[in-house]
Write a structure and sequence with these properties.
By secondary structure, the protein is mostly helical. The chain has helices at residues 37-46, 52-67, 70-76, 82-106; strands at residues 13-15, 18-20.
């Protein structure tokens, strides 16, 4: 018995009384793991997921994080500051809240 393809012309998919549409083309997604963080956050600002101020603060924090790698910190005798940790926590809360707000405002539910 041959099962019809989900994209066949006569196939209809519904949830309750609502018809659902399927994608008809496949698009290759970019490898985000190899994309610089400032490009990712720029994309998020352009799409309305983040505010520019959050992007700027996040990029700065990310650069700080990269600059205080354990070996580099030992070489430069960097000593973490409580203020930096508190600011990072507050920033990450704003970051997550903005992403949640975007998805809440743009969900189809």
């Amino acid at each position: 018995m041959k099962v019809p393809n989900a994209l066949a012309v006569d196939v209809r998919i519904t949830q309750g009384n609502t018809s659902l549409l399927l994608c008809k083309t496949k698009k290759k997604k970019g490898d985000l793991k190899r994309t610089r963080i400032d490009f990712k956050t720029k994309y998020a600002v352009e799409r309305g997921l983040l505010l520019q101020a959050t992007k700027d603060s996040f990029d700065s924090l990310y650069n700080l994080r990269n600059n205080i790698h354990i070996l580099k910190a030992a070489d430069s005798q960097y000593i973490p500051k409580l203020r930096e940790a508190k600011e990072a926590f507050i920033l990450m809360r704003a970051f997550v809240d903005e992403i949640k707000a975007y998805y809440k405002a743009n969900s189809n539910n």
